[in-house]
Input
Amino acid sequence: MKLMISLALVLLIFWPLSARALDHDNLDPNRPIQMEDAYAIPQGEIGLESGVRVNDRRKGKTQFIFQPQIIYGAFRNTQIEIQSDIFTEPHTVRGSNKSGDLHLGVLYNFNTETLTLPAFAVRLEADFPTGVRSKGVDTQMTGILTRSFGRLRFHVNAGYTVLGSPQDRERDGTYRLVAAVSYPIGYPHRFRETLIVDVYTRQSDLVHQRNNTGIEIGVRHQLSSRIVLDGGLGTEFVGPSDRSVITGTVGLSVGF
Amino acid sequence: MKTKQWRLSALVLGIVVWITLPLTACEQFEQRDKRFYYRALWNFSLRDNLKELDIDFNGIDFGHSNLYESLLLTGANNVSTIEDKARKETLRFIASRPILPPNEEAIAPTYMKLAWRAQNTFDEAHALHRSTYDIYVSDLSPAEKDRAILNVLAYYQDSPYAMTPQRLDHQRLDRFPYSKTFRETFPLFNATIWAYHYLQVAVYDPLSAAPDLPAKQQAVQPILNTYHHYLEHPPVQWTFMPLVAEYSPRFAEQYPAIANIFDNLHMLHDTISDILASDQLPTWDAKRKEIYRVLDSYYLASADATNPMVLHESPFPHSQH
Output
């Protein structure tokens, strides 16, 4: 963890404060909360994203999750992603995203929002069993909608995950629903922060348990045109006995 | 159980297809098509080395979007809302010395939804503007700068959103039934917009002639002073927008295609201002259709073969300032 924090600090201090592109209003999952908008990064852009999430659970040890990710705008309206989350307490991880799994994803944005149409996108993902206690290839599909009213943007994410090889009492498939709003703070004087709030519910990882249901809030701050910092907090108010009491996330994204 | 899950996945996929296929048939279906700028080591040389000029360019980015949103939401029927409120918001933003470009979708969320394709055309031409400034301010040799400029031009022209590099008949483009509505109704804001365009085109030759960064800073200072004077006292006596060849003749001679693209870009800004200000196009739908008609017929490079506005001779424009 010290290494990751040191790396982040080095990047923050020494990266030239210049640029444009990767922007605080383009919302990607986990940066800093799980919701995302329907838009892909521009064609040709490369984004390096990283974050640290602290998950203080009602039962079990506090967990730290490191979230390195590479995003590439491979085609117009299409981004591809490579990610591998690293968890502390890896043997206690349940569900599709095991510590060290190789995660590949594609986001395709069908359309931009117009006066009559929301923006729609679909995300397809696969988790390969390269991680701790991981078996089988897990797949996920998510539909994404973004609709704005003035500067307030609403987002809905609805996804379903199929576990390739569920273990113990793991479900073989789980759904997830997220509703979110985002708002640029500071208009008309300042354009460097976006506030994001979401509520979500997802099926528990193990059978016969209640849905994990919670709320998250986050801010994305444009440090330079190339660098976005993010921070978020969340809590789960309904769910299994090991649900989150509080989660905290800090991260940064660099586009070039 | 496994079969059940795959059936569920197929159902979700079916729902996605069911939602998205009709989208493509919808009249307002538009793809976003954002493209990254030309990547090079000289990216952001202007921001890193001539901050003052870069900050003024960032301020400019606010102006057009704020204008378009204000025209759209007010129906352009309230002069003081545009000339006083919207224009002064723009001046305040410029005075705030923004070190980063603003998020234009936050400034003009309604306009972006009305005419995204036109906005994306602006965005790509603005990226070409930024790239040429970066190259001029970079420490490349003259030959390397020339090569870099031709590379960014080729990259720009490789896009379906590229504006024509042909010289267009701006006088004819200024004779549509709704033309001049904006400048006649809102002369102060129009002159402010033309002052932005003055700054954008006037810096090329001084930047090119100055041998090093201190000299470049010194060379652009009088232009910045003039620009800020224009912001305080908008040049309402001007009868036409500033053209590249008037203020940076060397640049226009060396890179006529880019100079034409920038003049056409600024003319398109004026045309869209007129469309949004005109009551001859009373509905948002009518405005959108007209914006896309002129864009597709006269401004995009894809229309070159049939574009009646292309001037086949290339006379230098005469000064109107």
User: Anything to note?
Assistant: The radius of gyration of chain A is 18 Å. Chain A touches chain B through 51 residues (CB under 8 Å).
